[in-house]
Amino acid sequence: MSFSFCASMFAHQKTKLYPQFLLLIPIAIAFGLTPLNVRATESLLTLGNAQQLAVIRSRQLIAQDMAVTASREMAVAAGQLPDPILKAGIDNLPVSGPDRGSLTGDFMTMRRIGVMQELTRNDKRQLRAERYDRLADKSLAEKTNAIATIQRDTAISWLDRYYAERMATLVTEQSNQATLEIAAAESSYRAGRGSQADIFAARSALSMVDDRYSEIQRKVRTAKTMLNRWTGGDPELPLAGEPDIEKIRLDLSALDKSLAHHPQIAVLTRQTEIAETDARLAEANKKTDWSVEVAFQQRGPAYSNMVSVGISLPFQWDQKNRQDRELSSKLAMVEQAKAERDETLRAHVAETKAMIEEWQSNLERSARYEHELIPLAKERTQVTLGAYRGGKSSLSDVLAARRNETDTRLQALQLQADTARLWAQINFLFPVDVQAMHPTQSTNKDMP
User: Fold this and answer.
1) What span, in angstroms and rounded, lies between the C-alpha atoms of 86 and 332?
2) Is residue 363 classed exposed, middle or buried when 0-12, 13-18 and 19+ CB atoms within 10 A define those classes?
3) Maximum CA pair distance of the chain?
4) What is the separation of C-alpha 432 from the centre of its chain, rounded to a whole number of angstroms?
5) How are beta strands 85-91 and 306-312 bridged, if at all?
6) Residue 369 CA, distance from chain mean position
7) What is the DSSP letter of 192?
8) Domain residue ranges in the chain
């Protein structure tokens, strides 16, 4: 029994059952049943939904929010004066003579209690607070970069599963055809028109298809596992249709300017700002801070109590080998951060351009497969099948033609999968709807 004959029989049965199917629709509506296509639509996992689920359940983004909060809180603390120091002690306690160990016998013995406060310059406190603000900005940039990475990796996992399932469907069709060809070979052998070699060839072809199917099923399971790592939930949830991989969100005419704002480059820009703040803080440290101390000193009942006031000032006696060296170090780190940012940007632009060129080339090749190679493979199969039916070709030729057609279609799918991966890497260089997907937690930015 040929494949076309089976298809015609199914169509005939479908025609006979169609009026009865129409009669079941009002009953289904009366009992509140949802049409199958509606249920399927509601239970499909689109690429956008998968990315939203991945962003929402990400613990990395929560960690980045906590880093932002920590830096904001430290910015407030760094802007304050140091805590005052409470000082207490005993001055001039006798250790010999008749007043040895006495707190009141000698007029010079005093019990002292006082407070010392370091008066840090206001510009230093502002720079210290600013440094933590820059750290918070860097954490926000790292969060944006993390969102872009999550969306990109989720898209790649989604597309890997999508194309693996399409390949599995194609190989299943090939397996069905191989089964029918075995039946046809056995029928021809019983009728005296074929040979046992045709039967063995058909069975060998089915075994090869089954082996290929096992390999593709492994890829499907792996792809489901990787996608479920991002989305969670039901790993068997079917996928919706593929996205339009022939369009990207980047402006190719202004690629260099666009990539200058890429999240990874933004992180390096924030690191440069932190280094610049450190340099300004090192410059401010060349001006010393004062400390003020006030102490109350109590003597014996026969003597007067006293009050002492003092001022402390660090003496930068070797500024050229300490403060100046520190400032030079911080300025060098600023230049290091700038150079690393510029080099990363150049590499990023070159890599992105290479990916875009490969993506465009793959699109052109995919079009060639769709409009030329696959139709030619189908025509070859049909011609060989017609020759076989007319006794002018062997079953081995038919099997070879079908295998060539299937290989061509699988190669086209693999090329589409590679193109889709490139599309995901390019299209999600920048995150989509960052604030809508994962709003930043409120942080304390108030400065006294």
Assistant:
1) 40
2) middle
3) 138
4) 12
5) unpaired
6) 32
7) T
8) 17-437
d(CA 303, CA 259): 78
Distance CA 220, CA 214 (A): 10
Picking from 434, 427, 435, 430, the residue whose alpha carbon sits closest to that of residue 47 is: 427
Cα distances from 273 to residues 48, 344, 349, 430, in angstroms, run: 34, 16, 22, 22
What number of helices (H) and strands (E) belong to the chain? 12, 4
Which CATH architecture best describes the domain 17-437? Answer: Up-down Bundle (1.20)
Q: How far apart are CA 152 and CA 58, in angstroms?
A: 14
> Which amino acid appears at position 165 of this protein?
E
Task: Express as a percent the part of the chain with pLDDT over 90.
Answer: 51
Name every residue whose Cβ is closer than 8 Å to that of residue 350 and which is 6 or more positions away in sequence: none
Of 116, 114, 112, 115, nearest in space to 305 by CA: 112
**333-374 pLDDT tens trace:** 999 999 999 999 999 999 999 999 999 999 999 999 999 998
Residue 229 has which token pair?
């790592």
35 secondary structure, DSSP code: P
- Cα 120 to Cα 132: distance, rounded to the nearest angstrom: 17
Residue type for position 118: E
Helix spans in 191-262 (H) = 196-231, 255-259
The residue type at 198: D
Please state the pTM of the whole predicted model. 0.78
Amino acid identity for residue 42 in this structure: E
Model pLDDT for residues 268-294, shown as the tens digit of each residue? 999 999 999 999 999 998 888 899 999
